[in-house]
Amino acid sequence: MKSNFIKILANPDNKKDSKVYNELLNEYAPIAGARQVYHYQLGYTPNKLVNLKYEIQKNQGISDKEIALYDPSLEEEEEVVQDPPKKLTKKEIEAAKKAEEAEALAQKNAETLENPILKGLDESSWDGLKLRDEYPFLNEENTPDVYKVLVSDKITAYKNYAAKHAEALEAADQGEAEDKLFALASGAIKDYQNNIDIKDELDFYRESKGKVLGKHPKLKNLKIEQEIGEMSEADLVKHRGNALKSVSKYAKAENKEKEAEWTFRLVNAERNLIDKFNYKFEK
Prior knowledge:
Blueprint: H1 2-10, H2 17-28, H3 34-41, H4 46-60, H5 64-68, H6 90-106, H7 128-134, H8 145-173, H9 178-207, H10 220-229, H11 233-252, H12 256-277
Helix pairs in contact: 1-2, 2-4, 3-6, 6-9, 8-9, 10-12, 11-12
């Protein structure tokens, strides 16, 4: 069997990568686990071919030297009949699907063998000093404190992601249950996404010269304050009217989250009308 793998890996006939991929998979499927079979049977991609070659070489103990020295003239002319790909049971397919989802979460935008933990995360994620160089506004006194809090969150998110991802990879190597792998990968991807979301906020604030993107929950109120602060007198009056109606509507519906948001909008609209246009409201 090892010789079959070497022949395909050496590719003496210069076959297309997709054909090499399928031939390798046909050979590997009967000896691979359900998880690997399902993952690779989803179809060829350049990254998957790299991963499949690496996995087969490791599994069969095939060195790069053996592949480079392969001589097709030494092969027997007798055709080798390959075993058909392994047929998976319904239970195996479901387990493989769950494993595939876990892998996709843990390796989002990181399907190469190079460095799956750091892929997609800027190197400054763990270094507060580098972040302050990358985002000079963090050194300015008038920068809202919430951005400085987000920097701390960003560093923590990166460290948590790296730790959980490493734990997930180790658990996979140890053959841990799929439920545990999925839980680890899910936790890792939440930290990954938090890191990316914070980066988006910092990038936007820097590039827009002080505008707030406001997609991160911690910047929601700051975004509202900025939007209301830029309104004209007429828009402020209109927004205040909408806020009064919305506060009443959500209070009756017992939607505390929306009631709080519109109360915040109401307070800000009235404050701007008072400070900028000398409005007076009955208490």
